[in-house]
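S2.1 Query sequence (Cholinergic receptor, nicotinic, alpha 10b)
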Amino acid sequence: DQLRMNSLSLSLSLSLPGCSAAHGRFAQKLLRDLFSNYTNALRPVEDTVHIINVTLQITLSQIIDMDERNQILTTYLWIRQVWMDAYLTWRKEDYDGLDTIRIPSSYVWRPDIVLYNSADDQFSSSMETNVVLQSDGQVTWDQPAITKSSCSVDVAFFPFDLQQCALTFGSWTHNGNQMDLFNALDSADLSDFVANVEWEVLGMPAKKNVILYGCCSDPYPDITFTLHLKRRASFYIFNLLVPCMMISFLAPLGFYLPADSGEKVSLGVTVLLALTVFQLLVAESMPPSESVPLIGKYYIATMTMVTASTALTIFIMNVHHCGAEARPVPPWAERVILNHLARFCLVYEVGNVQEAESEGPPLQGGRSREGKRDLQGLRRDVDYIANAYQDQRTAQLRIGEWRRVAKVMDRFFMWLFFIMVFFMSVLILGKAI
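Output structure tokens follow.
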């Protein structure tokens, strides 16, 4: 122990700038006098009924990581604790005006202040540093620490969300009748904060709480620092939202493809698969919870729209390929779709085709009986050909009408889904403004 005291005193004398050899000897003498009968196992109060007051100040240096899936916030903090030690006082005049010394923190009594909501499995992420002793007994302990705290992450408005993460500090064994806590400032110090690429710090107010736990009747004070975070959404806008919007605008174009191209359904299925991939990327980074993220709702709405457009495309293709055996277009469909909806959707290229009347040529009656039989046979042949041509013409007109119905429905649903995609994109981007 004597060798330990001598080496520590030598380091103190060398660490004081401009101090003479005599000043260093006074530092050694002061160290021996202070710790000759000192113990760091008990509270440094003259009377056990006295309360020791600890002032706590937090400086946020860096946000290392925010694990949304495991709901763990990792931060780099500077923790300052100040208290009065009744047994570490001296008169400066007796030690050549020496007012301050710095010694290892393990030499003195230290408050057992811990992070209540710690999520660190090691419980030893702080650094052992020196404490500053002043002649009036004030002890200042500045300690850097990397903390992992549990944080309830609400992803309802992801990626335009605001998060509040609480860091609660308090004594683990001392109640409020033995040790009390005070705030050095109304909030944590953010002057040395290193900006984070994903999170913007809006503030970190501090609040003192006095809690009565069910196990004990004594009050336990703590200080809670609430870290207010706002996510920087630029990364997610350009990597998740904009590609999804561009893909979703392809879904209405499936109605513009010609029905005979054979690619209408394939385009809808391809768009649906692409949106599914983006949905899986979002689901992997989000914690499993009942609240669906805003971007997840947008993906689900877009996928529902694409599914509906694909189903409507199949129905319209069935209408387009109605054959000659199909029924005629109903009067209500002809009135609503072919007349009003066609003008509304600007479909003018196909007009009404008038049926051509086919009449047999007038036949002149012959004088001979054999000539009459020949003319009757020729008339039957001409009537058969005319009837066949009339049936074929009627079938073609029926097919043309059904194709026109399909084309008008294609145009109508194309503009309808374009409007839906536009409004959905405006609503999701409105959250970013």
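DSSP finds seven helices and eleven strands in the chain. The first strand starts at residue 52 and ends at 67.
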